[in-house]
Amino acid sequence: MKSRYITPVVTIFDEQGRIDPEQNTQVYDFIKNHVSGFVVMGSTGEFFSLNMENARQMIKTCSEFSR
User: Fold this and answer.
1) CA distance 35 to 46
2) At what angle do helices 21-31 and 52-66 cross, to 10 degrees?
3) Residue 62 CB-density burial (10 A; 0-12 exposed, 13-18 middle, 19+ buried)
4) CA-CA distance, 60 to 16, in Å (whole number)?
5) Residues of the chain with pLDDT under 70
6) What does residue 39 show for φ and ψ, rounded to 5 degrees?
7) pLDDT of residue 2
8) Is Cell membrane set as a keyword in this record (predicted)?
9) Contact indicator for 59, 21 with CB cutoff of 8 Å
10) How far apart are CA 58 and CA 9, in angstroms?
11) Rounded Cα gap, residues 45 and 40, in angstroms
12) Chain Cα centroid distance, residue 62
């Protein structure tokens, strides 16, 4: 039975400070069997430093993973 937890996830950036979709997907994959969902940009603090384009990219990356 899948647990009923929704967890905040960190945002992984590359060496140039850009969001790294591949690494973020690996984080989602690592914890997917232990949670019911993810909170992207919710409480780990980095959402303050993201512009709208990066925020959309994070939402898209997580949404595509969840399908």
Assistant:
1) 21
2) 40
3) buried
4) 21
5) 1-3, 44-45
6) -110, 110
7) 59
8) no
9) no
10) 11
11) 11
12) 6
One-letter amino acid for residue 3 of the chain:
S
Distance CA 5, CA 22 (A): 23
Sign of CA dihedral 28, 31, 36, 41: negative
- Bridge partners of 41, per DSSP, are none
Tokens linked to 6 = 């929704």
How many Cβ atoms from other residues are within 10 Å of residue 50's Cβ?
Answer: 15
Three-state SS string over the chain comes to: CCCCCEEEECCCECCCCCECHHHHHHHHHHHHHHCCEEEECCCCCHHHHCCHHHHHHHHHHHHHHHC
